[in-house]
Amino acid sequence: MKKEYLRQEGYDLMGAAFEVSNEMGHGLSEDIYQECLEIELADLKIPFQSQVHLDVWYKEKKIHKTYIPDLLVYDEMLVELKAVKELTAGHEKQLFNYLHITKKAVGYLINFGHPGKLEWKRIVLSEYIPSAEYPF
Prior knowledge:
Blueprint: H1 7-24, H2 30-43, E1 48-50, E2 54-58, E3 61-67, E4 71-73, E5 77-82, H3 89-102, E6 106-111, E7 119-124
Parallel strand pairs: 5-6
Antiparallel strand pairs: 1-4, 2-3, 4-5, 6-7
Helix pairs in contact: 1-2
């Protein structure tokens, strides 16, 4: 199934996020969690870029404006970090829109702010999975 696209890479990302959550707890600012996650990803040798400018597409045309995700992991997964009490449908819609405008297939929404647990959501847009790499 196409839902399996980048599944192991997602497990690796989330393992790093759980490590940061276990070490730092909740209640800190988003930028602190981002820096900690960057350290964890680097230690695990998981390739990522922070605050990279991605092309934005409108009707198959690249526009001048760019989108800057918190992290781009494995050159394919958009990662949006939050430090809020709870994730909302608006946060999910925002990530969905970011995936759509950048033509990326997989996105993770990770919230370090929920008391007592790490909240996260994986979104897969199958229309952007490269068919040559993942034919089924």
